[in-house]
Design goal:
Number of strands: 14
Structural class: alpha/beta
Shape: elongated
Distance between the termini: 72 Å
Mean pLDDT: 91
Length: 366
């Protein structure tokens, strides 16, 4: 069995974690009597220093995949390497050394209720036999980093959910790891607290150069903090790419389904009066257009003069653009007089949009 090698610095962007045709089969299920395949030949790489997101619905295999990085789960097929080391080949000492290089935070915090914040953070160092003076200095440093210097002597029951997660992050960083794994780390938190935790993770990534791999079922988390994302469904890779590209032009059905809550779809009140053809009574009508921007053609946004070129009677009905990693992408719903509706090619040229579709027609007063 190979022992883990001392870490060798590598430039940012270097493949750091490599999944090579990783499969995971569990023994026969007690109710079905058949084996369960949680992962099917999953292959991708995570670069040193990036924030990499893995998203999927419940049962997609996210947690199983994440746990192969620190050998809490061993693949049934394929291999996982971290900084060139195949984690499945490590002996007990090698695994201990590897796991000190890989911190992990969890959805439910996993804090010891009978120990203070300081004791919870310092526990891994104490178990490792580190000198008390060093433990105290390191814990003080981490308390400052996560903004809990005034909570050192508090117990978990005295903390909010966000504070508990900050303790979990500090504890995960106590060995100064190179990789941080986040297992649904914000799922138990309210939206405001989630934002503060994601900002902390982004700051840790930026200032410490830490490689972060997080799993979630929430596309808003991916949009906020990740550089790249992998979409997992049924244990299989559906798509992978830069976050702004995946959000702007999703290719897989699973991706589109998870993005739907964030997209600017047709509002119910407008959908209720939408008709497939203009009114037959000759009255004034508006064509309702869906205009999509994937982030390539207009990375800086849509100039207002481009909308003005659509002429009198043009109306912005609904929608918006999001900026993700310097690329503006999203969807707008526009109303244009049906009697003088330009061709979709002319509209695409005027707006530099990636996709334009006529969704239907409404009376101009609707």
């Amino acid at each position: 069995m190979a022992a883990v090698q001392p870490p060798v610095p590598a430039p940012a962007g270097t493949p750091w974690i490599v999944f090579d045709r990783v499969g995971k089969r569990y023994p026969a299920h007690r109710t079905t009597g058949t084996p369960v395949d949680a992962l099917h030949e999953v292959s991708f790489t995570v670069a040193r220093g990036e924030v990499f997101g893995i998203i999927g619905r419940s049962g997609a295999g996210k947690s199983t995949l994440l746990r192969t990085v620190n050998a809490l789960e061993l693949p049934s097929g394929g291999r996982v390497t971290v900084d060139g080391t195949d984690v499945a080949t490590l002996d007990e000492d090698g695994l201990v050394a590897l796991r000190r290089r890989i911190g992990m935070i969890f959805q439910h915090f996993n804090l010891l209720s009978a120990k203070t914040v300081r004791e919870n953070i310092g526990l891994p160092l104490r178990v490792a036999g580190v000198r008390p003076a060093y433990i105290r200095a390191r814990v003080d440093e981490l308390l400052d980093l996560v903004g809990l210097a005034d909570k050192a002597d508090a117990y978990p029951a005295q903390l909010s959910g966000g504070q508990k997660q900050r303790v979990g992050i500090a504890r995960a960083l106590v060995h100064d790891p190179q990789v941080l794994l986040c297992d649904e780390a914000t799922s138990a938190l309210d939206p405001e607290t989630t934002q503060s935790i994601l900002a902390l993770l982004a700051d840790i990534n930026r200032t410490m150069g830490l490689t972060i791999v997080l799993i979630t079922h929430d596309m808003a988390v991916i949009r906020e903090v990740c550089d790249r994302v992998l979409v997992l469904d049924g244990g299989r890779v559906q798509e992978i790419g830069e976050v702004w590209r995946v959000f702007g032009a999703p290719r897989a059905d699973a991706t589109r389904a998870m993005l739907r809550p964030l997209q600017h779809d047709l509002p119910p009140d407008l959908a209720a009066v939408l008709r497939p053809a203009p009114p037959v009574d000759g009255g004034a009508a508006q064509a309702v257009l869906g205009v999509s921007f994937a982030g390539d053609a207009r990375p800086q946004g849509l100039p207002l003069e481009a909308l003005a070129r659509l002429g009198p009677g043009a109306t912005l009905l609904h929608g918006g653009l999001d900026r993700i990693r310097g690329h503006a992408q999203g969807r707008l719903l526009l109303g244009l007089p049906a009697a003088r509706l330009p061709t979709t090619d002319c509209l695409r040229d005027a707006l530099a949009a990636d996709r334009i579709e006529i969704l239907g027609y409404v009376h101009a007063t609707a």
